[in-house]
Amino acid sequence: MRRPRPIPQKPKARQSGRAGSGPRLPSAPVEVPIERLAHDGRGIGYWDGKVTFVEQALPGETHLVRLVEVRSRFQEGISEACVSDPAPERVNPPCPHYQTCGGCQLQHLNLDQQRAHKAQLLRDHLQRAGAGVATGAWEPMLTGSEWGYRSRARLSIRHKGKPFAGFRQKSSRELVKVSECPILHPELNRSLSAIQQVLAGIEPRALGHAELLRDDSASFCLLRQLKPLRPRDRAQLAELGRTSGLQVLLQPGKEGEAGTTVTDPDGNAVAPLLGYRLAGLDAPVSFQFQDFTQINPEINRLMVAQALAWASPAASETWLDLFCGIGNFTLPIASLGCRVIGVELLPYMVERARQNAIAQGLDNCEFVAADLTSATALKRLPAEIDGVLLDPPRAGAREVVENLLKLRPKKLLYVSCDPATFARDAKILLGGGYELIRLSTLDMFPQTMHVESMGYFEYSGLGKPR
């Protein structure tokens, strides 16, 4: 007889409406064999003829599942126990908060299978989009550290009872109080317990959130200050800085404000210098707390190096770096002697990129603030472009890609953080005369379901009619 294997339960999930308003939930748990993994890492099985999603269930396992939401075409459930032998790929999650925290989805799956699943997700999206990829185009995944890779994280602060900092629970707006987070940089992870002790004594509602950040040389804790602090609160924060290895800083202002004023715990204005190194650059790439930077510095360095190796920008070429941010790709391309034009929506990031170029001694790159979803944005740029690098947000770059077909740059390198929008945009490029020469996934976010990818296209004029 099979012995049930208990699985720690997660918070109660939401029900599917009022009683009698839809399909009724079974009164007892049901047995669900798991066949495959979904795009979000949940196990997929079938019960009563419907697709059934089960968190932390792996293919080959059978789970006793309490259904918590039933809809016309699918249902969702929580595993009460695994009633089969565990899958060979199952591992014990090291994080004590994994069952409740919504930050990670794959700690129960070994790293090799995580990576294989992410690569398969990209293949599946490309196939569904009708964007065929030659077998020879696939390159090995870029990989790095499994743990301790994350260089920044934002923790919300709860003020019911004693204040504490935490991440959102799974499928909830409630917070999980975190005492450790193994995907954080070790120095940031070690500081969590000390931060929680200090927050417990701070006046409620004085602080809004805590931003933990590690650059190449130092660790920071930036606290959003919502109202004046008591002297004893400031003293506790100053002590936290002395004992934790963190530079503890305050940013006065309401939540959502983009103010850049930063002070130390005593209220003195400070301007911390943040930066990270990239190969081929003479100085660090500088940034401020509100700037977007990649949270995995190790993979970011590998990613930039791979982009340069694939695209091989020549000194005689003119390149566009679209969604350029603070110059993460622009500066390394310019260091090869190319003329590079970086385009970014946010003016303050454009200015940061300009200052970074000056610090590197690069006078062959320029930066423009523009909304790239507008058809007029590219009209401000040179008509003759040799190469384009795209690093758009999760929504992808449909409008940009359609407009780029008019410029027909010979080389196009696309860095994506969403396989679905990458597949959609790749189909447009393939239909507009481009060939996908090289393609790979990047394991930027181990233990989570986020998938980063990179594709290198060249214009051949042989695409399918659009």
UniProtKB/TrEMBL annotation:
<dbReference type="InterPro" id="IPR010280">
    <property type="entry name" value="U5_MeTrfase_fam"/>
</dbReference>
<keyword id="KW-0408">Iron</keyword>
<dbReference type="InterPro" id="IPR002792">
    <property type="entry name" value="TRAM_dom"/>
</dbReference>
<dbReference type="InterPro" id="IPR030391">
    <property type="entry name" value="MeTrfase_TrmA_CS"/>
</dbReference>
<feature type="active site">
    <location>
        <position position="417"/>
    </location>
</feature>
<keyword id="KW-0411">Iron-sulfur</keyword>
<feature type="compositionally biased region" description="Basic residues">
    <location>
        <begin position="1"/>
        <end position="15"/>
    </location>
</feature>
<comment type="similarity">
    <text>Belongs to the class I-like SAM-binding methyltransferase superfamily. RNA M5U methyltransferase family.</text>
</comment>
<protein>
    <submittedName>
        <fullName>23S rRNA (Uracil(1939)-C(5))-methyltransferase RlmD</fullName>
    </submittedName>
</protein>
<dbReference type="Pfam" id="PF05958">
    <property type="entry name" value="tRNA_U5-meth_tr"/>
</dbReference>
<feature type="region of interest" description="Disordered">
    <location>
        <begin position="1"/>
        <end position="30"/>
    </location>
</feature>
<feature type="binding site">
    <location>
        <position position="323"/>
    </location>
    <ligand>
        <name>S-adenosyl-L-methionine</name>
    </ligand>
</feature>
<feature type="domain" description="TRAM">
    <location>
        <begin position="23"/>
        <end position="81"/>
    </location>
</feature>
<keyword id="KW-0489">Methyltransferase</keyword>
<dbReference type="Pfam" id="PF01938">
    <property type="entry name" value="TRAM"/>
</dbReference>
<feature type="binding site">
    <location>
        <position position="391"/>
    </location>
    <ligand>
        <name>S-adenosyl-L-methionine</name>
    </ligand>
</feature>
<keyword id="KW-0949">S-adenosyl-L-methionine</keyword>
<dbReference type="InterPro" id="IPR012340">
    <property type="entry name" value="NA-bd_OB-fold"/>
</dbReference>
<feature type="binding site">
    <location>
        <position position="344"/>
    </location>
    <ligand>
        <name>S-adenosyl-L-methionine</name>
    </ligand>
</feature>
<feature type="binding site">
    <location>
        <position position="294"/>
    </location>
    <ligand>
        <name>S-adenosyl-L-methionine</name>
    </ligand>
</feature>
<keyword id="KW-0004">4Fe-4S</keyword>
<keyword id="KW-0479">Metal-binding</keyword>
<dbReference type="InterPro" id="IPR029063">
    <property type="entry name" value="SAM-dependent_MTases_sf"/>
</dbReference>
<keyword id="KW-0808">Transferase</keyword>
<dbReference type="InterPro" id="IPR030390">
    <property type="entry name" value="MeTrfase_TrmA_AS"/>
</dbReference>
<feature type="active site" description="Nucleophile">
    <location>
        <position position="417"/>
    </location>
</feature>
